[in-house]
Design goal:
Layout: H1 4-15, H2 20-32, H3 36-49, H4 54-67, H5 89-96, E1 127-128, H6 141-156, H7 158-163, E2 172-175, H8 182-193, E3 196-200, H9 202-205, H10 212-226, E4 230-234, H11 237-240, H12 252-266, E5 275-281, E6 299-302, H13 308-319, H14 329-335, H15 341-362, H16 370-377, H17 385-397, H18 405-413
Helix pairs in contact: 2-3, 2-4, 3-4, 10-12, 13-14, 13-15, 15-16, 17-18
């Protein structure tokens, strides 16, 4: 019959299986009661969680000796572990031989060891071969045309570009409200060029040690060059290339990151053949102005909320994967002006949740209807509104060099400026 004491102890161990001290005490009590095999098992588990658990070590040795055939039973494990003994180097040398054991301390040349100094830094990035092109981007014909004229056509026909003095240096910056497909467009550009695609964010290059961030930025460009032809996409460039004037003196690593990025962009004239650098941001006005000079990100393309054909394509894509009935697509498209691509997906997903709840209650699949869509449209508003408010101030007061002419024209069409 099971001892009530051990029933309680086993329940406690089961409730807190990682408590090495508790399990060691249980093992000691088991050994004292003559249950050496169980004591050995619990001591071993305790040592898995805490290799230095002294009670468990003592129980393990005593239980193993007890269970060994031909050996006298070991005394119960002491409640207080013995004091640790100094390691006997002479005995170890006698067992292994003097040639096998190096001396405890040796003299050598002084060497400075820095945190994170583990050799050359290598970029750990996923490399894609996009299967999409601009033909897969619904609508946005103006954006596609600007991409072809300012970036794709010169890259595809360098001899024609050279004849007209068109420089192939520099990169392309996509900007606009969040959720409008800037990353997808960047992948489509890589697909158009038949190039590999590498995406980089701040988390990929920021390091905790002095100089590590700069090394990571250099490693990213080095890897991209080794994979040419390749598109290197710097997502949220306002974080990677933030205005240095806004970075405090204590953030030297961030300043160094921007400086290194400038250096790498300048090298595009010499050793970046076949490397195309794209970037995206919701706030180009927060990017360091030096990054927007000729030879760097000197071409900017505004990616606005999807137009009517784009909204129709996006909605068709998301509705196609779900059971629907009686969806008036034109009505939904007209009701979602200024919605981003992410907003449109949210509309369809929320309507699907309504239909799913009905399906659970009815015990059968109920399709998404216009009633579901109209219900969620009364609740969901476009997320681009706050961005447009901030962009309006920039267009009105910070467009002296004409950098945001496309944005000004868009706001005037909307009578927001």
């Amino acid at each position: 019959m099971e001892d009530p004491l051990f029933s309680s102890l086993f329940a406690a161990v089961e409730a807190t299986p990682d408590d090495a001290a508790l399990r060691a005490q249980v093992a000691q009590l088991l050994l004292e009661r003559g249950r050496a095999a169980e004591a050995l098992q619990h001591a071993a588990i305790a040592l898995q969680h805490d290799p230095a658990q002294q009670v468990a070590l003592a129980v393990l040795a005593a239980a193993a000796a007890t269970l060994q055939p031909g050996q006298p039973a070991a005394a119960p494990a002491p409640s207080t572990p013995p004091a640790p003994q100094a390691f006997d180097w002479r005995a170890a040398e006698a067992d292994l031989g003097p040639a096998s054991t190096p001396p405890p301390f040796v003299e050598g040349p002084a060497e400075t060891i820095r945190p994170g100094d583990d050799g050359p830094v290598e970029a750990d990035l996923d490399v894609e071969q996009p299967g999409v092109t601009l033909a897969d981007v619904g609508g946005l014909d103006d954006v596609k045309q600007r991409l072809r004229e300012s970036f794709l056509d010169p890259m595809r026909h360098p001899e024609v570009a050279a004849a007209f003095g068109k420089s192939l240096r520099g990169g392309l910056l996509l900007y606009g409200p969040p959720g409008c497909g800037k990353t997808f467009i960047a992948r489509a550009v890589a697909g158009e060029l038949g190039a590999r695609f590498l995406s980089v964010t701040l988390a990929d290059v920021l390091g905790p040690h002095l100089g590590e961030t700069e090394q990571k930025v250099h490693a990213v460009f080095a890897k991209a060059r080794s994979l040419a032809p390749a598109v290197l996409f710097l997502d949220e460039i306002d974080a990677i290339g933030a205005r240095r004037s806004g970075i405090g003196s204590g953030w030297s690593g961030l300043r160094g990151m921007v400086n290194t990025l400038l250096t790498e962009m300048d090298s595009m004239a010499s050793d970046n053949d076949g490397l195309f650098v794209l970037a995206a941001t919701n706030a180009p006005w927060d990017v360091d102005p030096a990054l927007l000079r000729p030879g760097r990100f000197d071409r900017m393309t505004l990616v606005l909320p999807p137009d009517r054909p784009a909204r129709e394509a996006i909605l068709r894509h998301h509705f196609a994967r779900r059971p629907i009935a009686g969806i008036e697509l034109g009505t939904v498209v007209a009701a979602t002006e200024d919605f981003s691509g992410a907003d449109l997906e949210h509309v369809v997903t929320s309507a699907a949740e309504q239909a799913m709840a009905r399906s659970v209650q009815a015990g059968r699949i109920e399709p998404i209807t216009m009633t579901d869509v109209q219900h969620v449209l009364r609740q969901i508003k476009p997320s681009t509104g706050s961005w447009l408010i901030g962009a309006k101030n920039v267009a009105a007061f910070a467009n002296a060099d004409g950098r945001y002419d496309d944005l000004v024209a868009y706001l005037k069409r909307k009578r927001a400026l």
